[in-house]
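Usage example:
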Amino acid sequence: MGTDDDGGDDPGSAAAAAAPFADVDEERLREVFEAESYVADDEIVTTVLLALRLGKPLLIEGEPGSGKTELGKVLAGGFSTDLVRLQCYEGLAAENTLYEWNYTKQLLAVQAGEGGVEDGGGSGEAGADGDGDERSVFDRDYLLERPLLEALSGDGDRPPILLIDEVDRADEEFEALLLEVLSDFQVSIPELGTVSADRPPVVIVTSNRTRGLSDALKRRCLYLHIDPPSFEKERAIVERKVPELDAAVAAELCGVVARLREEPLLKQPGVAETLDWARAVRELDGEGEGLEPATVRNTLGCLLKEAEDVERVDDDLIERVVADATAE
Amino acid sequence: MFENEEGTDLEAARERTLGALVSFSRALRREGVSVPADGSLVAARALATVGLSDRERVRAALKAALVAGPDEEDVFERLFPSFWRQFAGEGDFWTPPAQDGPDAGEPAPVEAAPESGGGEDTNGSDAGRDGGTVARRGGSTSETESADPVSDGTSAAVYSPVGSTERVDAIGREDATLERSIDRLGRALARLRGRQVTQSGDERPDVRRALRRAGGGVPLPLPTAGRDERAVRALVLADVSRSVLDTVDRPFLLAALGHMTREWREVRTFLFDTDVREVTRAIGSRDAGTALERAEAEWGGGTRIGEAIAAIRRAHPGAVDRDTVVLVASDGLEVGDVAELEEGMAWLSGASAGVLWLNPLAGSPEYEPTCRGMAAALPYVDGLFAFAGPGDVREVARQLERQGLSGSIGYEYDPRP
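Running the assembly step on the lines above writes:
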């Protein structure tokens, strides 16, 4: 139950085909998070479990650096399956996300008389009609799969994890394109027909909320908002990810970050910044002398990414926050 | 569609689950949450997946299924406790109910319900669609009114001459975040400049005391003074008119008032709508529901802040002094005389150390204090803040810590998105 190798591969089970992770239980999921050193609270575990078992896409929102993308990677690593990542950006178009025809190959095939230009007409699964000279250049041999299609046509033991990262950076047109993929797990290729996923991928969509997403997209997804971590959770993350760092220093470091987050900064440091900073401090603090204001000042660039923020955090403030953190 | 078999505990439990779920989805929609048409269906499947025994799991599952944004999350968090109480009503929901007949207070069965256990029905039929799939028995007109009596708290149904009858959820919710926020606000108030100085502190030399003790050239240890962090003197005026109760989470309001009253040293708390009542003792007790009932607190009328302040001025002139910070929790939708409100606010402002106005509406990004009551009161207010959750209380504390009462404080300086 709930392992990589059993259950979900049962070809006779329609339910398993619809939700290939339907056999995963909470214990197994916690094991995966544990093995991948991902500190997940109960809400994250429950929501991810639901996404896996119900086979619904999961929309994750949260501050940059809160571990949204990492969650997708962790699932892929933990369940030993492929991660298909689609990084979104402005101007992302269908040909970058779904498929392209390999025009050069098609042209060469037509010139060599190996294929015609008739549509594949839905027979694309085999890619040929049987008779050599009747082959169409619009079949799968000439198709360049881009991430979305690649995720739908995965043939591993487990379906892949499809990570659609920072969807808010893409245009609204791209969202419309996603709808078909997310609701039916299929892609329509006019020349070829509809390609459906035998085993739908686990879809993780992340957003930094730089713009609102369409209701239609949100409706198709389960929703998870990853809050900025509590002091305790952040400390656990730092201790897990940067084990070489002295536990007391890790606690001080998280205390400083928590305290700095109370300041009106233009960009609040996320967990990713905390981890970067922890690694920097580890490198500099070879003797384990604890967190000194000078170290904080010299490594502040790991934590704060806006010039105004670095300027705002002056020596007085650093001394105060370090004193607060060490006192706690 | 399934038959409602009387006497089948499982069926009754299932009906109650779905009924509560559909009611919850509809309540969320009414509050502006864009619950999708198949939201109840997905939520039912989610519940079937995570089980019903663990409150936090149920909360996470429903949130994943019904919510799609942090703003909606706030509404969800506000309404979920009520849902849970309805859901887990009559004590133990997961053991066979003692009386499994259709009681008047129960949500009625769902007429066309999805298969909550299997989740195989994927045709998109929505148990929560606003098509009247849920019919309530007993002809009650308000959902809150028909909610089951809760097992872990007290409900007080009371009459108000202006508003309609209202069942007040009077559970003293244990909310550590809120309590921490209130404590922080208390500390911020206690540290305001000019606040009460005690001899026990060690912040600065107490020159007066040193001079009094000095005599005969005998060296003495230098006495010091500091501010007592618990020496908050506050007057809390909480508006419980219909408009406020519709906006603010009542358990939050009660818990906030209760914790302030209990933990801050000198606090007097008054509730007002069209009338004003002191509830310091009642709301400070752990059993706030019973206590409020004893205090004959009425909820749900219109707002007459001016009259309330005038009444306090007449009946409790000692409630406000130079060292008292006045906290007014109200939306400022005054139905009384604005001139009287202005006069009352002028008195409060002049007689107290400061007036902070906590407005449940001010959390909205579009909020402008333009309603006539709020506009009239604003010149006399040191800071107008949002008041809808622990985060808002924390923000008040943060600004007071940084700026004090006389600095640039208020909802317009709230950096939160």
